[in-house]
Amino acid sequence: MKYFFILFILFTSSLNAQNLLKFDKRNVQCEDKWIAYQIDKDSTYTFGFIYVDSQAGLTLNYEGKFKIDNSGRFNRIESETKKEIGFMKVRLQPNRTAIAEIPESKFKELNIEKVPSWLKSYQTDESSVDRLYRWGYMYNGWNEYEKALTFLEKADKLDTKFKGLQTELAFSYNALGKFDKAELSLKKAIAENPKDCYTYKELAYTYTKLVNFEKVTETYDIMTKICSDQNFIQETAYNLAYQYFKTRDKVKFKKWKTETEKWSKSENQYTKNLNEMETKLN
């Protein structure tokens, strides 16, 4: 009976913690949030504040550890070597490790502020086009396209002609399947810079997804005349070949397979894939 009682207490304590901390977030979803990592072997939680440094990127301001008692109270653990709490900045790489947002109701127990005073030095020019663009660019790089748009669309309202903005917007739109919006953004970008090969590559991709292969071909022809980066040209030809592979159009597949191969001096992943496709078609 005694052992059962002990197990019951442990089980109840575990449920308490689960209810208070929901480990359902990734680090790239927690900018300007207090977070906790999964429980350690000694029943402690590591916690800190995640923010974005414009130079270093995603960063954790590590602030220590805490335990949750049976009543659900968060008890901060002081450093073993000295009474004051230590701080440490850790550069983060986006990953899928599940972390939890710390409820605001627990901030007082941990002796933390909702917005740390030191954060102000990192929150400069938050409403400027440049900062909004850079944050959108970062979130696109982390595959957080919806989040990227929250910055990029604000930037668009301030300066629609800001360098690189329309192409970055199109990247988000393409990733989210909003191809009509991507097309509009890319046309704006080309109007400002008619020789930007990356923009044409994105436009060709958009037309591919819109199943407008005639427009893809037109864009490809422009790219062959203006682009110095042959990888973009090859990628565009490959995407068309792949579309014709899916529709089992052997004649057009062969044509675009040949076009793809023109832009590489040796075998690469594109040509390997196309050879496999050709074998399947035959």
Automatic annotation (TrEMBL):
Q: Which residues form the signal peptide?
A: 1-17
Q: Which domain of life is it from?
A: Bacteria
TPR repeat ranges per the UniProt record: 163-196
UniProt-listed SMART domains:
TPR (SM00028)
Under the heading InterPro entries, the entry gives:
TPR-like_helical_dom_sf (IPR011990), TPR_rpt (IPR019734)
Q: Sorted alphabetically, which keywords does the UniProt record give? A: Signal, TPR repeat
Q: Which protein, by its recorded name, is this? A: Tetratricopeptide repeat-containing protein
Naturally occurring in which organism (per UniProt): Flavobacterium xinjiangense
